[in-house]
Design brief:
The protein has helices at residues 22-32, 48-59, 85-88, 98-105, 124-131, 163-172, 189-200, 232-245, 260-268, 307-315, 334-340, 370-382, 393-396, 402-408; strands at 4-7, 12-17, 39-41, 63-67, 70-74, 82-83, 107-111, 136-140, 143-147, 155-157, 179-183, 205-206, 212-216, 224-226, 247-252, 272-276, 279-284, 293-295, 320-324, 344-348, 351-355, 364-366, 386-390, 413-415. By secondary structure, the chain is α/β, with parallel strands linked by helices. The protein binds ligand EPZ. Residues 22-23, 26, 92-93, 116, 119, 121-126, 160, 162-165, 186, 304-305, 327-328, 370-371, 398 line the site of ligand EPZ.
């Protein structure tokens, strides 16, 4: 198993270009199986989760081919609607194959999904949402069976603005008879990107980015080209890395409107941030002030996917901080690893209380999941001495080559 070996104490300076977003690409790939012609996803980022999703599409009979940094998908030969556990257990995004499969084939058989171990990750909102569209659903022997002679547009009220459930229901209703309205929908930028992809292929969706989405059923989708949005979580991770290590970096190919909650918190803590077109500049020359209270919330609130990274920053800021994780019940696993690095932190259920220390010190730690693995990389860069991070395969699920990006800014990370 690969590890990272990090020499700490470096500051970050220079520029990095942010790739297209994992959490935009994954639902778009799922949706591509509904298309009636060849789809080209441009500037695709080959995270391991993306490669895995492409494997699932090939398993279902799609023809897929990477050409330079584009992915060509011909979904027409696909004739399967069953995804076995060997394919679903690794990634959460397999769950939102349900909607596209039942929309295209009238049925679907998908094994329960896997994904980051950050909580129970229930799928009740997906199931209830699809049932509201006249989809018959049974769960047995570890599989979810869906059947719908015809999907009928209806009203779906989500108890929680679930990203995946919103995406699943949006896709399931594209060919529905009549109009579907999704209330209390998730408002993440990736939802809007999925709407734009569906419409580019001939669908009729509006309202994504607000809490009410309307889908007017169409007979089919065509094909075409599409470029997904930039990855706001990677951009946020690198901003927090610079805030933690000190230095001056610029991030290109960003959309800062997708990171307003983070930018506000980083400015509050003393970062100098400038925003110009698709570039974010951040400069930090001193130890930052702690953020007294940080709560994760659905978009546009502070994103749970940047919570671990922000926790690291708080462990070395001036003062105390309370962090509350409202989205996932076990997203503080990183704290045991931070204790090894000298962090002064107490965790109780969904709350972490942090007293900032002057510096962390290097240690041997293990990445519990994708985003806390990225957080540990930031901790290693800031720590005094050397840090080894085990199980870095988690990090490759959502970062193309985190060490290449950060080393180009002056970090000293070796993948072994
Ligand atoms: C998506 O996961 C993202 N993954 C996650 O990013 C992200 O953390 C999450 O949204 C929240 O923003 C992808 O887009 C592939 P949810 P998802 O459904 O769809 C509860 C990363 O690091 N819930 O919005 O699984 C659930 O328990 C990953 O890139 C139900 O109760 O998240 C959680 O408390 C990690 N029932 C809350 O909703 C359901 O049926 C948010 O989950 C579904 C969800």
């Amino acid at each position: 198993m690969s590890t990272f070996y990090i020499k700490g104490g470096t500051t970050l300076n220079g520029s990095v270009t942010i790739p297209s977003a994992k959490n935009a690409i994954l639902p778009i790939l799922a949706c591509s199986i509904m298309c009636g012609d060849v789809v080209t996803i441009k500037s695709i980022s080959r995270f391991s989760d993306v490669d895995y999703m492409v494997k699932i599409l090939s398993e279902l009979g799609c023809i897929t081919e990477f050409q330079d940094d584009n992915l060509i998908i011909d979904p027409r030969p696909s004739d399967k609607y069953c995804i076995p556990e060997e394919y679903t257990k690794k990634i959460r995004s397999s769950i939102f194959m349900l909607g596209p499969l039942v929309a295209r084939f009238g049925k679907a058989k998908v094994a329960y999904p896997g994904g980051c171990n950050i909580g129970s990750r229930p799928i009740d909102l997906h199931i209830k949402g699809l049932q509201s569209l006249n989809v018959k659903i049974e769960e047995r022997h570890g599989f979810i069976y869906c059947e719908a002679k015809n999907i009928v547009g209806g009203e779906v009220h989500l108890d929680f603005p679930s990203v995946g459930a919103t995406e699943n229901i949006m896709m399931a209703s594209v060919f529905g008879k009549g109009t579907t309205k999704i209330y209390n929908a998730a408002k993440e930028p990736e939802i809007e990107d999925l709407q734009n992809f569906i419409n580019a292929m001939g669908g009729k969706v509006k309202g994504a980015g607000t809490s009410t989405i309307e889908v007017v059923g169409v007979n089919k989708l065509g094909g075409g080209e599409y470029t997904p949005i930039s990855d706001r979580i990677i951009a946020g991770t690198y901003m927090i890395a610079c805030a933690s290590s000190g230095g001056k970096i610029e991030l290109n190919n960003t959309n800062y409107t997708h990171n307003t909650a983070l930018i506000s918190k980083l400015k509050q803590s003393g970062c100098n941030i400038k925003l110009k077109n698709d570039t974010i500049y951040i400069e930090v020359g001193h130890r930052l002030k702690s953020i007294s209270l940080l709560e994760t919330l659905p978009y546009p609130g502070f994103p749970t996917d940047l919570q671990s990274q922000m926790l690291i920053l708080q462990t070395i800021s001036k003062g105390s901080s309370m962090i509350i994780e409202n989205l996932f019940e076990t997203r503080f696993k990183i704290f045991t690893e931070l204790k090894k690095m000298g962090a002064d932190i107490i965790v109780k259920d969904r709350m972490a209380f942090v007293n900032g220390v002057k510096t962390l010190y290097g240690a041997s730690v293990t990445a519990p999941d994708l985003r806390s693995g990225a957080g540990l990389v930031i901790a290693g860069i800031c720590a005094d001495g050397y840090t080894t991070i085990n199980d870095i395969y988690h990090i490759d699920r959502g970062y193309l080559s985190i060490e290449k990006d950060l080393n180009s800014l002056g970090a000293d990370i070796t993948r072994t």
